[in-house]
Amino acid sequence: MVIPAVLILLLLTIYPFIYLIYVSSHIWPISPTLPKIYLGFGQFTYLFQDPTFIESLKVTVNLMVVGVTIQISLGTLLAILLSTKTRITSYFTLPFMIPVFISPVVVGLIWKFMFNYDLGILNYLLESIGIGAVNWLGTPRNAFWSVVIIDTWQWTPFTTLIIKAGLDSVDPTPIEAATVDGANRFQIFRHVTFPSIAPIFTVALLFRTLDAFKAFDIIYIVTRGGPGGSTYVLGYNIWKTAFYQNQLGLAGAMSVIMIVIATILAFILVRIMKGLLER
Amino acid sequence: MIGRISRTELIIRVSLLVIFFLFFMFPIYWMVVTSLKNTVDIFAIPPKWFFSISFENYWYIMSDDSGFLKKILNSAIASTLNAIFTLLLAFPAAYSMSRYKTGGINLLMWFLSIRMIPPIVGAIPLFIIFSKLGLVDTFIALPILYIIINLPFAIWMIKSFMDEIPKEIDESAYVEGCSTTGVIFKIIVPLIRPGIFATLVFCFIMSWNEFLIAYIFTRKEAITAPVGVARFITERQILWGYITAGATLASILPMLLLIIFQKNLVRGLTLGAVK
User: Fold this and answer.
1) What are the pLDDT tens digits along chain A (279 aa)?
2) How far apart are CA B155 and CA B153, in angstroms?
3) Sequence ranges of chain B with CATH classification 1.10.3720.10
4) ipTM > 0.95?
5) For residues A145 and A172, what is the distance between their CA atoms, to the nearest angstrom?
6) Phi, psi of B36 (to 5 degrees)
7) Is A217 on the interface with B (CB under 8 A)?
8) Which among B93, B105, B147 has CB closest to A277?
9) Which residue of chain A comes nearest to B95, CA vs CA?
10) Is CATH 3.40.50.300 correct for B64-269?
11) pTM of the model
């Protein structure tokens, strides 16, 4: 009975993928009436010398590494805070889940409004406590960090939920034993709690890494890749090349490279998940 | 985690929680508040914390001029159709994988790896194919495309619920002369009903919130709410009142569903890895 699901997914993924490779070897305008020109690997060799493409790969990786590191750290902290079982924490958990379940477009728009230089509430607050306005989206460096803040706002709850579930499922007996033996709290976390949540921790890390690799919505809404290419992520680069500059073939070649990287990341995730399930 | 914590630590913990709470709640509060201000108050400096509530943004949003309600309706159609399609495909697959271990762990992992494909990568070839088939900007395009995003989730999620039903229950039903169909509809379905609802809701929310695919595969007739909201950013100005009102309207449904189904939705988000 798995056949319908498998067939549909094959039809919607494998067939388009083969077609994508075919597209990527051509100059392929969006308009079907214009001629398509065969180039072979031409667009790939072009891409590896294209500074914009290399730069967008770097931006994607930077955003991924910085964002995921912050989200995992804050997520761990928040999970520890929430895993203390009191009445307050049980009320607190639901509101923390909201960002994950609203559209990234909505998230991008709210933050774009709050980051606004003249009208934004953030600059008003900063000025009223004497720090002065920040040009959140205007300089390359600031725009990069602003995107990191937005991403962190939306996805820290996700890492929190996974890590919290890991913490909740930890068997308390060894912790009690270690406490009796006189271990301090840091030692307990390092040697008892952490090893038992390590696999689920890795799952959170990899899920976020792969999702951050796909970044598009927030970038499109908030910065459109700018200023100065500082947030020009791969996903946005592909979209713009394909649907704005009408070069489906070139965008296809970028997609092939992107899917190769995603496959490598997914392969690592699958290996770890398999280990987790087979335990 | 640990029973005894000192008073100072409790204070640190609670204040950290409050800071986190403000950080995560304030943007949503600010969105709703802004949507209820009139244009003058939105642009007021310093920002108005107290103001007279105005529904002018909502009146415009809900008028025929903006056509936003039609986009909400389009979102509802696409999301509902997709949730149904996905469930119809996922349920039999999950059943077979849970009860007969079809495909083993490798098939399960193949589904997981599909979840990891960046949507933009699939969008290019699928856009060419859908254009040839004349499916761009139709009501059927998005429900089909979202299967790629939601089916792996749904299979993992339903399977994780089914795995919790002991096989002995199936077996004793077979012994009493129940057919496979009987087992599925009289035993499995009633027992995992909350899981089935959560899966439907999960697929619905994911489709409802999706932007990139909707943006590429719709033009005019089938535009969804997120694309509609994004369009209030015009060349000349950004219409913050309409944007916040539209964004609020587009967020109400997911937030309500989250409140109702919270625990089981988390399970979907993590592909059933977290129970």
Assistant:
1) 789 999 999 999 999 999 999 999 998 888 878 888 888 888 999 999 999 999 999 999 999 999 999 999 999 999 888 877 666 666 677 888 899 999 999 999 999 999 998 888 999 999 888 888 889 999 999 999 999 999 999 999 999 988 888 888 777 788 888 888 888 888 888 888 888 788 788 888 888 998 999 999 999 999 999 898 999 999 999 999 999 999 999 999 999 999 999 999 888 878 887 777 776
2) 6
3) 64-269
4) no
5) 39
6) -95, 5
7) yes
8) B105
9) A1
10) no
11) 0.91
In Å, how far is A22's CA from the nearest CA of chain B?
Answer: 9
Residue A233 is encoded by which pair of tokens? 């992520």
Please report residues of A whose CB lies closer than 8 A to that of B121: 20, 238, 255, 258-259, 262
CA B58 – CA B66 distance, rounded (Å): 10
Residue A183 touches partner B, C-beta closer than 8 Å: no
CA-based nearest residue in chain B for residue A158: B269
How remote is the C-alpha of A46 from its chain's centroid? 27
A227/B contact by beta carbon, under 8 A: no
CB distance B86 to B206 below 8 Å: no
Contacts of B124 in chain A (CB under 8 A): 20, 23, 238, 242, 248, 251-252, 255
A148 touches B: beta carbon within 8 Å: no
The Cα A155–Cα A69 span in angstroms is 12
User: Chain B contact for A257, CB < 8 A?
Assistant: no
Single out the residue of A193, A229, A215, A213 nearest to residue A261, CA to CA. A213
The residues, ordered by sequence, that sit 6+ positions from B21 with a Cβ below 8 Å of its Cβ are A92, A95, A96
Tokens of B166: 């002991």
CA distance B36 to B195: 37
Query: What domains are there in chain A, each with its CATH number?
Result: 50-278 (1.10.3720.10)
Residue partners of A99: CB distance under 8 A and separation at least 6: A107, A153, A154, A155, A156, A157, B24
The CA-atom distances, in angstroms, between B223 and each of A274, B147, B151, B161 are: 39, 18, 22, 34
